[in-house]
Amino acid sequence: MQFQQLAYFVAVAETRHFTHAAERTRVAQPSLSKQIKALETELGAPLFSRARGNVTLTPAGEALLPLARRMLADADTARREIAELAGLRRGRVRLGATPSLCAGLLADVLARFHGEYPGIELQVEEGGSRDLVRDLARGQLDLALIILPLQSSDPSLVTEEILREDLVVASASKPGRRPYMRIDDLRGRPLVMFRRGYDLREATLTACRQAGFEPRFAVEGGEMDAVLRFVEAGLGIAVVPSMVLDNRPRLVGTPIVPGLRRTVALARRKDVEPTRAAHAFRGVLLSYLVEAAGHGTLPQGIESLADQEPI
């Protein structure tokens, strides 16, 4: 089994078309088809069904696809790590982060990292924790900033708690006379709700159900920017991290009593040693958090848990 064959297989699986896969991998279609056939012969099972011109994965192909993606991703990581060890001043960090962190402190961390390591390529993937964990498992990310606890424990990951953040009720005006709100105060209030699979959606629904009620949605399905914009437009209120309101003067953040908080962790795969570039990013991230906490410059509602012990 050759990496080139796996690359051709993944290309056909993703395009569902041999000609398009050949164009994508820059190889003649007969050569691609020949390599796919050789892979099928070696594995002892067909990988694609070609009935009536439609290309679909067989059960064997379905089983191979996630493994092939991970093997290709790991091979690429290995090539880059060897290049770094050879003394080349280049590399890559593929980082996943939740939208609230992308909209908050992550930009400053990335700016500091780029200033210290200008030759290292930064790739940022924005998404919910479940999506980021899946991408880590597939080898498509080196590190991810995710929300704990995970919906289901994943023994293949190493997680390191780095900060806690307060959740607040965002509204277009002060929602009441009190300087705080209780979860029960959300009962019957129109909520602007994030899309399914979003960490903040699950946190809000869980808190409301523990208080004994199902929340009422004014609108649902948005990402962070859309939810904040809908709240600004007066469609309803939303439970959000306090940090995302720093540059939103049209929104008011009301604390929740008792405090509703969540923990942010830096995650990586347990079975793959982080690259030197990933280690460098972790060092810059933790250094930033430690310094900001010491200087009192962290956004309101953020508590640093960072230390600088090696992972």
UniProtKB/TrEMBL annotation:
Membrane spanning segments where?
A: none
Q: Which UniProt keywords apply?
A: DNA-binding, Transcription, Transcription regulation
Which InterPro entries does UniProt cross-reference here? LysR_HTH_N, LysR_subst-bd, WH-like_DNA-bd_sf, WH_DNA-bd_sf
**For this UniProt entry, what's an example GO CC term?**
protein-DNA complex
Record-level Gene Ontology MF annotations = DNA binding; DNA-binding transcription factor activity
Report domain HTH lysR-type positions.
Answer: 1-58
Q: CDD domains this protein is in? A: PBP2_LTTR_substrate
**What Pfam families does its record include?**
HTH_1, LysR_substrate
| Domain of life where this protein originates | Bacteria
Family the entry assigns: Belongs to the LysR transcriptional regulatory family.
**Listed name of the protein:** LysR family transcriptional regulator
* Organism listed in the record: Planotetraspora thailandica
